[in-house]
Fold this protein.
Amino acid sequence: MSMLASDSSREIRHFHLFCGLGGGAKGFNRATPRAGGLSGRMRCIGGIDIDAAAIADFNRLADARGTALDLFDRDQYRDFHGHEPESSWREATPDDIRAAAGNERPHIVFLSSPCKGFSGLLSEKLAKTRKYLALNRLTIRGIWLMLEAWADDPPELVVFENVPRIATRGRALLDQIVSLLRGYGYAVAETTHDCGVIGGMAQSRKRFLLVARHAEKVE
């Protein structure tokens, strides 16, 4: 794996889209990856979320600078909010993604996009409304922005987490995401995990997990 090549200890940079308050980033920071005689030192280089209050927590928990940013495109904004954005609003660009990472390149990007439209807690009727379809499209919008941000030197790993129902209710979007990732040189696998088992908690909390590795960089 190139991110652990040559040196016995190598820094591994991770970046987060839809980062929330930073629980995922904190978990990455606590990781101690090893491969044979090699080891990795994890460092968060930033995160993006629309919620400024969550970003304030992210700054503390992730020990990194978060960025409050709306990742909707204009059509999504209009469909979700039911009106045009204010004149000061603009669509996020790949430049914004790079800036949120301090203009550093991550080895790993973790995305946990809004899951309300895919969740079984939302009725099928509401899930098909323009509002929630727009929210669901943030999945592919976030992936595309990230891929374009580092198109000249792609992250080695992309980890995408969501509710299990995305594999059925969001199948068409997932197929587009897989096709997009493959187009940028990634090998993609879909799986699930149970946060309760991983975290040793007295509950079961299953999650969908898509893992993509850049085929030329990670064997």
Remarks:
- The CA atoms of residues 157 and 213 lie 5 Å apart.
- The first helix runs from residue 23 to 30.
- Strands lie at 9-17, 34-35, 38-49, 66-68, 108-111, 157-162, 186-194, 206-214.
